[in-house]
Amino acid sequence: MLDAVFVFLKGIAIGAANVIPGVSGGTIALITGVFERLINAIKSFDISAIRLLFQFQLKKFSQKVDLYFLILIFFGAALSILTLARVLDFWFTTYPYYIWALFFGLILASVFFVIKRIDDWTGPVFISLIGGLSVSILISIMSPLSENSSFFYLFLCGIIAICSMILPGLSGSFILVLMGNYQLIAIDAINSLNMAVIIPVALGAIFGLIVFSHLLSFIFKKYKNMTIASLSGFILGSLLILWPWKNELYKLNIAGQFVLKKGGEKILEGYSWYLPSINTETFVALCLMLVGAFLIYMIERVSTQAI
User: Fold this and answer.
1) Pair 300, 116: CB distance under 8 Å
2) Please, are residues 152 and 199 in contact by the beta-carbon 8 Å criterion?
3) Which residue segment(s) compose the domain that 115 sits in?
4) Quick check: pTM over 0.70?
């Protein structure tokens, strides 16, 4: 029973990470020790599993796909996403500076716990780390697209976002920001339960999850150290998005006026970063970074004991 509680709590942590732009649920899954099990369970949904299900061999089906584990993880994640979307909407509006600082500490500390899983540093492993870092930085400085609510674009958002959500260091929420649909999907649609948006995104997510899990499982088993190094690079690069001391850059038209979405909101194009001044606000932010790092330490410690 205690193991089930721990798995459920890990699902909550994974779901919470996936709502936050710049934070990856895959990172939390890797730190808490469920990443490989999660990928293997998802990829178990193949033709033989479907056959067992239609033959009502439910016990064999459950064992094959690790169903009990998946239910706990996904129920915890879904509960977290549905509740946290409302909370984050308030926090990012009221205390954006401090929230980014907390998340920065979370991810900075997580890099250490991910990198320490590499047991053999070779040339290809080091190159993989640099490659992952480079790709992540490139994604971080890309300009977001405009919002698009068409069925096929939402389906594509679901595919790409879910793949990045389970890939440590690559934030599914930030990918949605780049695709122009973060506000539409992660905030508006979830808070209003807009099925016209949620259904195509969910279908894309299911499709992408099953296909991508097979590929990721194969790579993780065959090139474990290189994979972890690449993921560590992704995580390091994502810190650019989480750096609290940045100004938001919005899209302008030829006349120098803000280009607005349908709802009247400005379109985010990227960020400009700067170093903080020495004041009380900076001190509080640094304290919150330490809190975030401590939370990751506690998650890793509890998870190690629970495995």
Assistant:
1) no
2) no
3) 2-306
4) no
